Amino acid sequence: MASITARLPLPPLKLVNGRQSLNGTPQKLAMPSFKEGHDRLNVKSKATGESSENSIVKSVQNVWDKSEDRVALIGLGFAGVVGLWAAIKLISTIDKVPLVPGFLELVGIVYSSWFIYRYLLYKPDREELFQTVNKSISDILGQ
């Protein structure tokens, strides 16, 4: 179980029409009063169950233990890091060219709209997408 505790400063309260407001707009409901001298708010969050980090580590350990050619796995990991670095550099270079970022943003908006219309708007289409994703995952994992 993971736990996070934070002490956050309270937002500044403004007095509007005789009532306390967090953002300066009049409040129709009475705001709870804070005791003087308390300038911080305690927040505590707990997570239960298995974290995703543990499952990722376990799956990587399983792949490493089952592998016969570990040198190829190291090379594949290195190639992945180099490919990620190259992709980041390519995107940052394209982003510096005038008009290209706006055009690519328009392409992204149009494609996202089409994807939502094609796969997410109606239930049969969502089921088709779910089946396609599950088939692709099973093909990748070799199941």
UniProtKB/TrEMBL annotation:
InterPro entries: CAAD_dom, CURT1. Residues 58-142 form the Cyanobacterial aminoacyl-tRNA synthetase CAAD domain. Keywords: Membrane, Transmembrane, Transmembrane helix. It is a multi-pass membrane protein. GO terms for cellular component: chloroplast thylakoid membrane. The chain crosses the membrane at residues 71-91, 97-117. It is found in: Membrane. The keyword Transmembrane helix applies. It comes from the Eukaryota. This is Cyanobacterial aminoacyl-tRNA synthetase CAAD domain-containing protein. It comes from Dorcoceras hygrometricum.
